[in-house]
């Protein structure tokens, strides 16, 4: 009888660092103007790996789960893959709404929905979600955070 090896336990501090480092690595790839097809694959996998590790952190915060879903959605939207972009944008929104999250996170969830619909070519839905995100800007306390979302919204039609 063959048995599966026991998975290696990763302590929560290491797992949090790994999740954050993978998130940042994904962001670096997102900003790279001349990604190769291999780097596109790496970007997909690193965003999912980051989200996975946030989900494995004991007492993980819903905000980290939502941000992981947001990043997965962004990756797929940038790659023009609307179905997974919409899936992850919806998960981001669901997690934020279920936990009463506001501020930057809810505005970014709305922006993710708009961007995912842009990848799908649904300009009516883009306009509706962009309007929700724009309205949510007033609820962002930190000026720098607000400017990040404003900048993202400015890239949408």
Describe what this molecule looks like in 3D.
With 157 residues, the protein is mostly helical. The chain has one domain (12-154): Alpha Horseshoe (Serine Threonine Protein Phosphatase 5, Tetratricopeptide repeat). It has helices spanning 12-31, 37-56, 62-78, 82-98, 103-120, 123-136, 143-154. The longest helix has 20 residues, at 12-31.
Structural features:
mainly alpha, globular, 7 helices
SSE layout and pairings?
Layout: H1 12-31, H2 37-56, H3 62-78, H4 82-98, H5 103-120, H6 123-136, H7 143-154
Helix pairs in contact: 1-2, 1-3, 2-3, 3-4, 3-5, 4-5, 5-6, 5-7
What's the gist of this structure?
This protein has helices at residues 12-31, 37-56, 62-78, 82-98, 103-120, 123-136, 143-154. By secondary structure, it is an all-alpha fold. The radius of gyration is 16 Å and the shape is globular.
